[in-house]
Amino acid sequence: MHVRIRGAIGIAAVAMSLVAAGLVVGQPGVSHAGHGHVYSAEQARAMAEQQAIPGSEFRVTCAASHRGQDDPIVFQNQSGVSHMHEFFGNRTTNAFSTLTSLRAGATNCNPVSDKSAYWVPTLYKNGQPVAPDSVTIYYQGIHDREKAVAHPQGLRYVVGNAKAASAAENPAARWSCTTQSPSSRDFLVCPPGTKVETYLDFPTCWNGRDLDSPNHRDHMAFAVGLVCPPSHPVVVPRLEFLITYPVNGTGLSLGGTRNGVNVTSAPGYTFHGDFMNAWDPAELQRRVRNCINAGYICGTDGNP
After folding, report:
1. Which residue has the higher pLDDT, 58 or 24?
2. What is the pLDDT of residue 182?
3. Predicted model pTM
4. Smallest Cα–Cα separation from 220: which of 181, 172, 177?
5. 52 CB-near residues (< 8 Å, 6+ apart)
6. pLDDT of 260
7. How do 64-68 and 196-201 pair as beta strands?
8. Share of the chain above pLDDT 70, in %
9. pLDDT at position 201, please?
10. Whole-angstrom Cα distance, residue 200 to residue 160?
11. Cβ atoms within 10 A of the Cβ of 72, count?
12. Which of the 8 DSSP states describes residue 76?
């Protein structure tokens, strides 16, 4: 049986619908600035400080779905131009995906009420692509959880720096080995008997207005000192990817873009991830209310 986490103060009232309040507007025109992004020192510190913070949560488990050189956020409607990505969740995700197409598609996630699209660069071992062993998506309340609201339909954003030239340029990257606690922004040499795993944490503050932004990041922010900035006042659950791969040792690389060319040899510190929300709205709201707001740890069924 799950219990309340320390500090929870009980079930908060469900937040007023953001759509009804006029807080959600249509997706603006975007310029596809790409996955390259240098975080400000303040945002980088906030990102690193929040990586180990526990909270209330519910989870989604998925399997690898398909692989392709598409990216419906950065290269929308441009098939085959991205570096190689590993897609999980919605089975129909491609360069032309929209909220409508995702909601009409199928998913390999549990629960099936989550038809969202999730993707990361493909991992390679000695030049051969490796599908994840398992994928868990955590939705977590790590600050102001009583105020957290469900992600609006169609919200999309990315995290990480695919064009990082060093580990210092991508505080989002976090690699480790199963059964071991140390982590690194670049690949670790995982010993026999362990597997490579990676964690990726997304921001928790939304500007309450835009479903996307020109660089696919500016409508979201990390909470500095666990407080959302005035420019991004709406608290949403933190997404955390936990991806385990059936490999260890050396010879690891990622799909990526180096010097304008798509490659399969990008370093581990270029890791990044993408999210397009296509949950059933009522089911997502129920989980946020009963798990995140209420201060519980829930499973895939959204029950404490």
Report:
1. 58
2. 85
3. 0.88
4. 172
5. none
6. 86
7. unpaired
8. 88
9. 96
10. 8
11. 25
12. T
pLDDT-derived band at 259, boundaries 50, 70, 90: confident
CA diameter of the chain: 54
Distance, in Å, from the CA atom of 290 to the CA atom of 23, rounded to the nearest integer, reads 23
The string of DSSP codes covering 276-290 is: E--B-HHHHHHHIII
SS3 label, residue 291: helix
* Residues 204 and 225: beta-carbon distance below 8 Å: no
Residue-wise pLDDT for 79-114, tens only, equals 999 999 999 999 999 999 999 999 999 999 999 999
d(CA 177, CA 183): 8
Calculate the alpha carbon distances from 225 to 37, 144, 199, 229, 235 in Å. Answer: 22, 12, 21, 10, 14
Angstrom distance (rounded) from CA 215 to CA 209: 15
Residue count of the chain, please give it.
304
pLDDT higher than threshold 80 for residue 36: no
Residues 159 and 71: their CA atoms lie apart, in Å, by: 14
CA end-to-end span of the chain, whole Å? 8
- Secondary structure in 3-state letters for 27-69: CCCCCCCCCCCCCCHHHHHHHHHHCCCCCEEEEEEECEEEEEC
| CA dist., res. 120 & res. 216, Å (int) | 15
Residue located via tokens 């590993």: 86
Closest by CA to 202, choosing from 118, 79, 91, is 118
Q: Which of 209, 202, 98 is nearest to 159 (CA)?
A: 202
Sheet containing strand 205-206, strands side by side: 220-221, 205-206, 234-235
| Per-residue pLDDT tens digits for 96-105 | 999 999 999 9
Beta-carbon count within 10 A of 134 CB: 16
pLDDT in tens, 169-184: 999 999 999 988 789 9
Residue 54 corresponds to which tokens in the numbers above?
């526990």
